[in-house]
Structure to design on (359 residues):
């Protein structure tokens, strides 16, 4: 990846520098972007769509904060990267809320809703009526505005053409997952396994639930957005980035998310990929295996120390979540994952707790 060497010095290489940028630039800019979207969401005419849009911003702000960390590696382009990442992640969170608490179980409805994410990263397509197959339709243009914001900022990324096929690949997998995981509970496991069967040659060492988890992360897309801010990016480099993030870094992200949400998902009747292991011990072994895979994969990237911080930051962010201490079994798993943690992870653990107190 010689063509990206010139950008290597922009990457923060140690935790103190990264968190300095996060506190000074990333968090304030994310807050500003979300305030703007909160105002737009508050004016959505349909009460159910308005409720879910506002709830997604209120309860999932940390998704945007975490994603926007990639802008810390190119501060001069953060005026492009942060609005793009926040808008794309807000679409993801909004649609997840709509599908989780949906008034329908229609796979076609879910696919049409998520077509907005594919359109967001493919500026050449025409926008559609994404609500055509559901009762709630009038969002006052909210979803179209989010999609257009993504497109407007993508147009400012000089290397996007090289990254586009790999971004579309990841967003396509994400869309498939959201369709299959939200259909009727009696149908979804079989649908997910049949889907995995079509793709398992990509990740033969992963179980079906682990592959599905990997497709549910937006981190690979955000890293490719960052890479596309470099005009020298070529398709070979973009493919290397995609392969370094998918499946292990992406899989770790979502497995940790499901790990801490087990009790909440059980109450809500939502699918949880951590519930498919035969024992807590096996679950722990598999997550640790994915962690090691992620650490190995990012070594092929320039400025690998930045990506190592992403991995340690993911572990710290999720294992410091208040939900962990409220679930004894998950707390026990968390303690074992944190055992003999490197100083970097402990540093991010403390910072994650501090950031949550400020929200």
């Amino acid at each position: 990846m010689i063509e990206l060497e010139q950008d290597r010095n922009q990457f923060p290489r140690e935790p103190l520098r990264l968190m300095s940028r996060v506190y000074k630039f990333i968090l304030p800019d994310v807050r500003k972007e979300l305030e703007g979207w909160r105002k737009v969401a508050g004016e959505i005419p349909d009460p159910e769509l308005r409720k879910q849009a506002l709830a997604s911003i209120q309860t999932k702000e940390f998704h945007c904060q975490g994603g926007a960390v990639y802008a810390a590696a190119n501060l001069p382009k953060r005026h492009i990267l942060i609005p793009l990442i926040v808008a794309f992640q807000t679409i993801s969170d909004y649609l997840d809320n709509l599908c989780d608490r949906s008034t329908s179980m229609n796979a076609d409805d879910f696919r049409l809703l998520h077509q907005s994410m594919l359109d967001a990263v493919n500026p050449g397509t025409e926008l559609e009526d994404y609500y055509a197959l559901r009762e709630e339709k009038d969002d006052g243009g909210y979803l179209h505005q989010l999609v257009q914001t993504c497109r407007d900022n993508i147009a400012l990324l000089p290397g996007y053409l090289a990254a586009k096929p790999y971004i579309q690949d990841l967003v396509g997998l994400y869309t498939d997952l959201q369709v299959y995981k939200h259909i009727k509970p009696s149908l979804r496991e079989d649908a997910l396994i049949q889907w995995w069967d079509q793709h398992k040659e990509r990740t033969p060492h992963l179980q079906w639930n682990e592959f599905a988890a990997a497709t549910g992360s937006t981190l690979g897309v955000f890293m490719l957005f960052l890479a596309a801010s470099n005009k020298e990016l070529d398709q070979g480099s973009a493919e290397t980035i995609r392969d370094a993030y998918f499946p292990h870094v992406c899989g770790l992200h979502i497995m940790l998310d499901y790990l801490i949400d087990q009790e909440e998902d059980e109450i809500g009747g939502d699918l949880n990929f951590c519930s498919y292991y035969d024992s807590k011990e096996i679950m722990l072994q598999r997550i640790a295996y994915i962690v090691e895979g992620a650490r190995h994969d990012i070594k092929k990237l320039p400025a690998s120390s930045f990506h190592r911080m992403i991995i340690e930051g993911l572990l710290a962010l999720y294992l410091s979540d208040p939900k962990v201490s409220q679930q004894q079994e998950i707390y026990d798993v968390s303690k074992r994952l944190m055992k003999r943690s490197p100083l970097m992870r402990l540093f991010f653990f403390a910072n994650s707790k501090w950031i949550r107190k400020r929200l």
User: Anything to note?
Assistant: The first helix runs from residue 15 to 42. The chain is about 70% helix and 0% strand. Residues 41 and 54 are 6 Å apart (CA to CA).
